[in-house]
From TrEMBL:
One of its GO terms (cellular component) is cytoplasm. One of its GO terms (biological process) is chorismate biosynthetic process. It comes from Maribacter cobaltidurans. Its EC number is 4.2.3.4. It is an enzyme of class 4 (lyase). Residues 62-174 form the 3-dehydroquinate synthase N-terminal domain. InterPro entries: Dehydroquinate_synthase, DHQ_synth_AroB, DHQ_synth_fam, DHQS/DOIS_N, DHQS_C. This is 3-dehydroquinate synthase. It comes from the Bacteria.
Length: 353
């Protein structure tokens, strides 16, 4: 499968991924290679990964705890300390083997340790393959507030091997699928329609490369998110606030990223219908599609007020305005739209009706 070239690195797929990795390791003189894993990828993915390495190198394994709740600066401190204790220097390499939490955090740790060491991302979840694999965003959460601390910094390469998806449960696969559906909504109506027909993991695998290519096309035009790259945030303004609220509220079951973003895409679809010309039948199309994959979540009036309070921390805000990406139609967006507060309650009412 043909690799996808970004601005300073490439995303390699399947067998080509390990060919590229082995060629890179052979051509570099890394002092030590650190592999960052969590307890799941340590057991389920690391043995297969190591079996594909050709040559003799010095490896050190660093394990962190899985889950968004551990995507914190405290976890980073633990990894920085481990790197120091294990003798890492500026000629070390970090390989991040895991989902988006691990690749985001690992990329941030590598980008800041001794002012930056090389890193390679090996995403093992569908979400991280189609979302975190492109764009160079690294970082951690600040309490329940997502991705408040971080830098944009590119890896040496990204390796996507779909066999790792066999280690996931159905809920995790469905979570990642939300980002693929988003790619169709913001950029390609035909892709949206084709994804709506997907019914198996094998079919999803065939759509991974097109999703990565679509995101890469957007990022290449706007690497630092000053303009068009903002379209990738569709569904994420409300979605991230919803995800943060359920993460910090002990009385609520934590939502996976894609589950929260799916709600965000329905509610922001309603805002698009009210403000940017999205047709009613397109809105119905969006809602029915997401509710086919993602069970409906109930929100009380207090839930909604608390979620809206979190919007003020969104990274896309500027000059006191909460900026949204909305749809003009499926496949076409409008950025930097400000919303009046009464419409938020209408949007949640539409989601729940």
């Amino acid at each position: 499968m043909q690799s996808i070239v970004s601005d300073s690195y490439a995303v390699h797929f399947e067998n080509r991924a390990f060919e590229a990795l082995n060629s890179h390791l052979n051509s570099q003189n890394y002092s030590t290679i650190f592999i960052l894993v969590d307890e799941n990828t340590h057991e389920l993915c690391l043995p297969q990964f190591m079996s594909e390495i050709e040559g003799e190198y010095t490896f050190e394994i660093i394990e962190i705890e899985s889950g968004e709740v551990n995507k914190t600066i405290e976890t980073c401190v633990g990894v920085w300390e481990a790197l120091s204790e294990l003798g890492a220097d500026r000629k070390s390499l970090m390989i991040n083997l895991g989902g988006g939490v691990l690749t985001d955090l690992g990329g941030f740790v590598a980008s800041t340790f001794k002012r930056g060491i090389n890193f390679i991302n090996v995403p093992t979840t569908l979400l991280s393959m189609v979302d975190a694999s492109v764009g160079g965003k690294t970082g951690v959460d600040l309490g329940p507030l997502k991705n408040q601390i971080g830098v944009i910094n590119q890896p040496e390469m990204v390796l996507i091997v779909s066999d790792f998806l066999e280690t996931l449960n159905e809920r995790q696969i469905t979570s990642g699928f939300a980002e693929m559906l988003k790619h169709g909504l913001i950029k390609n109506a035909g892709y949206w329609e084709s994804l709506k027909k997907v019914s198996s993991l094998n079919e999803i695998k065939h759509h991974i490369r097109p999703s990565v290519a679509l995101k890469n096309e957007v990022v290449l035009q706007d690497p630092t998110e000053q303009n068009i790259r903002k379209i990738l945030n569709y569904g994420h303004t409300l979605g991230h606030a919803i995800e943060s609220y359920f993460l910090e509220n002990e009385s609520k079951e934590t939502l996976l990223h894609g589950e929260a973003i799916a709600i965000g895409m329905i509610t922001e679809g309603y805002l698009s219908y009210k403000l940017t010309g999205l047709a009613k039948d397109a809105l119905v199309n969006i809602k029915s599609t997401f509710l086919k994959y993602y069970p409906k979540v109930d929100f009380t009036d207090k839930d909604i007020l608390d979620i809206l309070e979190l919007l003020k921390y969104d990274k896309k805000n500027s000059h006191g305005n909460i900026n949204f990406v909305l749809l003009k139609q499926i496949g076409e967006t409008q950025i930097d739209v400000t919303i009046s507060s009464d419409l938020f309650h209408e949007a949640f009412a539409y989601y729940m009706e």
